Amino acid sequence: MSHPQGLPTHLADLSRTLVMGVVNVTPDSFSDGGRFDTTKSAISHALSLANDGADIVDVGGESTRPGAQRVSLEEELNRVIPVVKELVANSVVVSVDTMRAEVAKQAIAVGAHIINDVSGGQADVEMFSTIAQDRVPYIMMHWRGHSAQMGEQANYLDVVQEVKDELAEQLAKANEAGIAVERMVLDPGLGFAKNPQQNWPILKHISDFIDLGSPLLVGASRKRFLGELLATEGQPRDVAAREAATTALTTLLASQGVWAVRVHDVIAARDAIAVVEKLKEQQ
Ligand code: PMM
């Protein structure tokens, strides 16, 4: 297992797939129904994920669900920064899910350990230079456009090849802007500018993405393509009932050596990874 440079040492010492727990500080997130929309409840949810065994807690203040509208910079800062401060004070390893350089900068200033940019540096021209000035790991996801437009951008002749090529291109641009390749994590961006069927070839060929040479993060948890897979009579399976399918994917991804999975149910993911690790030990 290769880790990105700049990861806290207690995580860099681990040889298993890491678990990133999701905390959406957004009133409209599809996956938590907006229950954690206040600072206080976001903090308590994050602490319970850490207690469940999350290696990293990913704090996001802007919903990226398909069709979502953007929030203002001020609103995003108000949602994210107090949560990051409190988690850092509680020794939680925090990543911040943001496309804005200013949010990344202020989050790093209060102790965030990782920046998770779903736009891979494309949404904010200042992002690469901001990240280049620091030493934190930088997660670059495959992205073609903001949530409001991404449905129209799901056009591929060869989804695996194109997503790989576009990720490699962003990685090269980030490196030219001064971010060491060793500090970056790649992510194929399941559900982002991909229709439900287009996620499956990516999952089938996940080792091709690992072969790009950077640690790989995958966020499949409870996503729409799982809802479609498990649909009954044309009705997608409810978000809350996609957990078994999510955990099945965690098992497959961990056994192929992905660096981390981004999930809502941390206990289920840690259990799946424990099974994978136990099997690896056997002769
Ligand atoms: N998915 C969501 C948000 N942030 N970040 C990364 N790196 N990878 C993802 O797949 C990803 C992400 C959307 O899912 P959510 O609304 O359940 O958080």
Task: Describe the SSE topology.
Blueprint: H1 9-12, E1 18-24, H2 39-52, E2 56-60, H3 73-89, E3 94-97, H4 101-109, E4 114-117, H5 127-132, E5 138-141, H6 159-176, E6 184-187, H7 199-204, H8 206-210, E7 217-218, H9 224-229, H10 243-255, E8 260-263, H11 266-281
Parallel strand pairs: 1-2, 1-8, 2-3, 3-4, 4-5, 5-6, 7-8
Helix pairs in contact: 2-3, 3-4, 10-11
The protein binds pterin-6-yl-methyl-monophosphate.
Overview of the molecule:
The protein is built from eleven helices and eight strands. With 283 residues, it is of the alpha/beta class. Strands 6-5-4-3-2-1-8-7 form an eight-stranded parallel β-sheet, with helices on one face. The longest helix has 18 residues, at 159-176. The radius of gyration is 17 Å and the shape is globular. Mean pLDDT is 94; it is low at 33-37. Pterin-6-yl-methyl-monophosphate is lined by residues 22, 24, 29-31, 64-65, 97, 116, 118, 139, 141, 187, 189-190, 217, 219, 262.
